[in-house]
Write a structure and sequence with these properties.
The complex is a heterodimer of chains A (247) and B (220). Chain A folds into two domains: 93 residues; 123 residues, Cupredoxins -  blue copper proteins (Immunoglobulin-like). In chain A, 40% of the residues lie in helices and 23% in strands. In chain A, a hairpin with a 4-residue loop joins strand 6 and strand 7. The longest helix of chain A has 34 residues. Chain A starts with 12 loop residues before the first helix and ends with a helix. About 4% of the residues of chain A have low confidence. Chain B is mainly α and 220 residues long. Chain B folds into three domains: 35 residues; 86 residues, Orthogonal Bundle (Cytochrome Bc1 Complex, Chain D, domain 2), CATH 1.10.760.10; 97 residues, Cytochrome c-like domain (Cytochrome Bc1 Complex, Chain D, domain 2, Orthogonal Bundle), CATH 1.10.760. Chain B is 59% helix and 0% strand. The N and C termini of chain B lie far apart (79 Å). The chains are: A alpha+beta (247), B mainly alpha (220). Chains A and B meet through strand 2, strand 3 and helix 4 of A and helix 5 and helix 10 of B.
């Protein structure tokens, strides 16, 4: 039901959507039934001049059944929702499949910085690619993310993944996702973080293996564009050192 | 009957005075919004950090902007909006300007807000950085004169901003950013690229503090 409104692009999105549908159908069923019975009774037993109203205390077993039966049936529905919620929670938040790639996500007022692991697939190495408000991931790859905040609380929210995770300053929060649909989608902040919280938006690009390899090749620190900047910096430093030594 | 009549007339009087009052209020409000400039309205978004007088806030690491020229403010807003300035992953304060500049939808918006900010009066700031030697800084400032002028008021023709009436902590932070490439390293940032080699002439933090101490004397 939810997928018709918002595409799903992660492996666990269908589990969360299933849970959403289940809760909507169960709650919807009981709501419509309760309203139906309520309005039927209001109409059926409306005031009539020929009949005198009765005062029912609801103390007899038969009268109590009208409450008890739906009560226990709703409790059964609650238990079904709880069990399935624990299963989905365990799958999404607790049980992490082995990582095939990793990404470091840093939130700040009011931007997201994504540190991609680069060609070697490892974070913290020289070929990491840092991008502001742009997350590039490869389809059908399990990513482990490390989520940080530089200032206040934020919440990393990717609606197409059905993923929402708070960031807390001073903590590194770990999690995972596996994109399964290519495309360009929204990333947003889902925790009030200041005046520009509402426009703290970024984009996620889910690419095929070839597209992702091409993006890494074009953006890694050793590529032509970025090495030109590094070269310029070295030239500037050398010139400045020469100027200082000359006088 | 007399009582009913007098009550009716009182209600009718009250109703007409209410209508007249409402019309007057609406008229006054409309007149106010017309007189109020678009730049002033747009600037409301900026006041949270830069304050209503454009004097900035040390607590929020927001610089004074009321000392800047209209042209320079427009150029910086364009740069922030495109990520040319403040787009570096390590530019924590610069990144805050990215979404704020995006609230200026058109160039006319930027012009309007810049004109308003430039119209605000500026004033000198209390020094906050200790250990700077203004005499040594004066010698280091020699290379800055070409663009920022001997009196530090900047030059719109060369796209250089005014340095006077600005916080010393902000100027020190910007010198460090230029030197480390956090600011001015974007290939599209032409004026930023002009500042980078200039900051290379400042050997260490002490040299930066010295030149900032000298710049502060220009505001006196």
């Amino acid at each position: 039901m939810l997928e018709k409104l918002l595409p799903a692009a992660s492996t666990y999105a269908k589990d969360i959507d299933g849970l959403f549908d289940l809760i909507t159908y169960l709650v919807g069923f009981w709501f419509i039934l309760a309203m139906g019975v309520f309005f039927y009774l209001v109409f059926r037993y409306r005031r009539k001049p020929s009949e005198k109203a009765q005062y029912i205390t609801g103390e007899t077993h038969k009268q109590k059944l009208a409450i008890e039966v739906p009560h226990y049936l709703i409790l059964l529905c609650d238990i079904a929702i709880l069990v399935l919620t624990f299963i989905v929670w365990h799958h999404v938040k607790i049980e992490k499949p082995p990582a095939e790639d990793e990404v470091r996500i840093v939130g700040q007022q009011w931007a997201w910085t994504f540190y991609h692991s680069g060609a070697d697939g490892l974070l913290g190495t020289d070929d990491d690619i840092a991008k502001v408000n742009e997350l590039h991931v490869k389809k059908d790859t399990v990513y482990h993310y490390k989520l940080e905040s530089r200032d206040v609380m934020h919440s990393f929210s990717v609606p197409v993944f059905r993923l929402k995770q708070d960031t807390i300053p001073g903590r590194i929060i770990e999690g995972w996702f596996e994109p399964n649909k290519t495309g360009e989608w929204d990333i947003q902040c889902a925790e009030m973080c200041g005046v520009a919280h509402g426009i703290m938006a970024a984009r996620i690009f889910i690419e095929t293996e070839e597209e992702h390899a091409a993006w890494i090749a074009a953006n890694s620190p050793n590529s032509a564009d970025t090495s030109m900047i590094a070269k310029n910096e070295t030239v500037l430093e050398t010139q400045a050192q020469e100027d200082r030594s000359n006088g | 009957m007399k009582v009913v009549k007098s009550v009716r007339s009182l209600v009718s009087q009250m109703r007409s005075s209410l209508i007249v009052g409402t019309l007057l209020t609406v008229g006054a409000a409309t007149g106010f919004s017309q007189a109020d400039s678009r730049g002033k309205q747009l600037y409301v978004n900026c006041t949270i950090c830069h304050q209503a007088d454009g004097g900035g806030s040390a607590l929020l690491e927001a610089p004074a902007i009321n000392n800047l020229s209209e042209k320079y403010i427009v150029e910086q807003l364009k740069k922030f909006k495109a990520g040319i300035r403040g787009g570096h992953p390590d530019d924590i304060t610069g990144l805050r300007m990215l979404p704020m500049a995006q609230t200026m939808v058109t160039e006319e918006d930027m012009q309007a807000v810049a004109a308003y900010v430039a119209s605000l009066p500026s004033s000198s700031k209390e020094p906050t950085i200790e250990g700077g030697d203004a005499t040594k800084g004066q010698a280091a400032y020699a290379v800055c004169i070409a663009c920022h002028q001997p009196n530090g008021i900047g030059n719109d023709l060369l796209n250089s901003p005014s340095l006077i009436h600005q916080y010393d902590w902000y100027q020190l932070a910007q010198l460090k950013k230029f030197k480390s490439g956090i600011r001015g390293a974007d290939p599209r940032d032409i004026t930023g690229a002009q500042m980078r080699p200039m900051t290379m002439t400042l050997v260490d933090e002490q040299a930066m503090k010295d030149v900032v101490a000298y710049i502060q004397t220009l505001s006196q």
